[in-house]
């Protein structure tokens, strides 16, 4: 089986994302020239050439990984898995001197242990090399040459090359994190789900490590999501086209623009404030984002128009009375100080969210890591709702 030839023209590709972000990612991929796009659970399937593959890694804000399937087959047990992994010509993909790592995920299968699946696949690959050359490539968990992804759902097994390497949410601008940091790709998705039109104030009044303000600035200024990344796994592939890659980056970077509206981050924790400052400076956005060390109620909206997006504590570290008081306080401040704004809040604590005391105009179900969460929209009308819409 000549894997490279099979997938050379019009590659089948898969972009992984968060549950609830599939449509956002599909729109991003369409804008980059992807074809035959369809959404699945936490994934978007599409077709494209190397240009699209490079663009997806460099520019998609809500993608976690871009996978290139090289084998799809049914598998009933570990012996059949071993046999069919060996049917792929791994020696046409990499050499004995190169390294690889395998990650596996298993759902609704007789094979229940992902680590065992990865081990059996590894054995099949190294045995193929050993039988052909008398030596084998090594497994390397840190900076391997090739990243291999195995996904088993029921009887179907898909084996892919991971073109991203490190998860794409690892942008490269975060030098430090505060407790419970928001995933960068999730933050980017929240901003797009909010429908923010890049005008008016953008505020995160509980900014923690500064992820939401940074992602807002990247989005508003058309700075590619991968702008700060040093490396992607596809750069190790035998068919890597350095000239095309440089062209993709140059064309994307040429679209970077200035942003005229204020972006604010604030946190009452001095530690969080300092971490956010460091990350914003690392991203070279210190002239574009204002970060302050103040509690939510001390923030002073300037224009009377804009959006707040924030990720308050969910209660894992707070006793019940404290979390209820916090969410009541959030509602009080929104009602008294932010009339004319839209507020979006993500939380997994649905009981505490009721104490905000405002009726959400929209609820979106998302997952923040393993936590099922809601992304609530609150429209903070100046005066009555009827008057505001006239």
Detailed description of the structure:
It is a single chain. By secondary structure, this protein is an alpha/beta fold. The chain folds into 2 domains: 3-162, 2-Layer Sandwich (VC0802-like); 184-223 and 256-389, Rossmann fold, CATH 3.40.50. Helices cover 32% and strands 24% of the residues. It contains 12 helices and 15 strands. The strands form 2 sheets. An 8-stranded mixed beta sheet has the order 2-3-1-4-8-7-5-6. It has a 7-stranded mixed beta sheet with strand order 11-10-9-12-13-15-14, with helices on one face. The radius of gyration is 23 Å and the shape is elongated.
Pick out its properties.
390 residues, alpha/beta, VC0802-like, Rossmann fold, seven-stranded mixed β-sheet, disordered N terminus
CATH topology type of the largest domain:
Rossmann fold
Beta-strand segment tally = 15
Low-confidence stretches: 1-9, 386-390
What is the helical fraction, as a range of percent? 25-40%
Mean pLDDT: 92
Distance between the termini: 66 Å
Count of all domains: 2
Major β-sheet strand ordering? 2-3-1-4-8-7-5-6
Quick structural gist:
This protein is of the alpha/beta class.
Outline the fold blueprint:
Layout: H1 3-6, E1 11-16, H2 22-31, E2 35-40, E3 43-48, H3 50-59, E4 65-74, H4 78-86, E5 99-107, H5 114-133, E6 138-139, E7 146-153, E8 156-162, H6 184-193, E9 201-204, H7 211-220, H8 242-253, E10 263-266, H9 270-282, E11 289-292, E12 306-310, H10 320-337, E13 341-347, H11 350-353, E14 362-368, E15 371-379, H12 385-389
Parallel strand pairs: 5-6, 5-7, 9-10, 9-12, 10-11, 12-13
Antiparallel strand pairs: 1-3, 1-4, 2-3, 4-8, 7-8, 13-15, 14-15
Helix pairs in contact: 3-8, 4-5, 6-7
């Amino acid at each position: 089986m000549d894997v490279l030839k099979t997938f050379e023209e019009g590659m089948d590709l898969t972009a992984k994302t968060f549950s609830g972000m599939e449509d956002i990612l599909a729109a991003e991929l369409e804008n980059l020239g992807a074809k035959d796009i369809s959404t699945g659970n936490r994934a978007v399937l599409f077709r494209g050439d190397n240009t699209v593959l490079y663009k997806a890694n460099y520019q998609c804000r809500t993608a976690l990984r871009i996978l290139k399937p090289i084998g799809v087959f049914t598998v009933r047990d570990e012996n059949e898995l071993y046999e069919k992994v060996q049917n792929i010509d791994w020696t046409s993909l990499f050499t004995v001197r190169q390294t690889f790592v395998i990650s596996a995920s298993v759902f609704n299968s007789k094979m229940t242990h992902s680590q065992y699946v990865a081990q059996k696949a590894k054995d099949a690959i190294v045995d193929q090399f050993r039988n052909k050359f008398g030596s084998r490539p090594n497994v390397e968990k840190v900076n391997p040459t090739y990243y291999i992804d195995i996904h088993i759902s029921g009887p179907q097994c898909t084996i892919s090359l991971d073109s991203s390497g490190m998860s794409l949410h690892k942008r490269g601008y975060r030098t430090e994190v505060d407790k419970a940091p928001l995933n960068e790709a999730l933050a980017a998705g929240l901003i797009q789900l909010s429908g923010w039109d890049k005008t008016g104030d953008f505020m995160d009044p509980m900014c923690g490590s500064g992820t939401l303000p940074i992602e807002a600035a990247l989005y508003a200024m058309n700075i590619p999501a991968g702008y700060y990344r040093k490396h992607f796994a596809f750069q190790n592939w035998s068919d890597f086209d350095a000239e095309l890659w440089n062209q993709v980056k140059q064309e994307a970077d040429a679209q970077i623009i200035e942003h005229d509206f204020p972006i604010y981050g604030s946190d009452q924790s001095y530690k969080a404030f300092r971490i956010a400052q460091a990350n914003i400076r690392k991203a070279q956005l210190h002239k574009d984002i204002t970060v302050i060390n103040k509690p939510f109620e001390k923030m002073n909206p300037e224009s009377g128009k804009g959006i707040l997006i924030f990720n308050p504590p969910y209660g894992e570290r707070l006793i019940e009375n404290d979390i209820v008081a916090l969410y009541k306080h959030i509602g009080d401040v929104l009602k008294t100080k932010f009339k004319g704004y839209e507020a979006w809040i993500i939380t997994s604590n649905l009981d505490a969210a009721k104490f905000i005391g405002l009726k959400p105009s929209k609820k979106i179900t998302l997952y923040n890591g393993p936590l099922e969460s809601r992304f609530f929209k609150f429209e903070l009308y100046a005066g009555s709702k009827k008057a505001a819409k006239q």
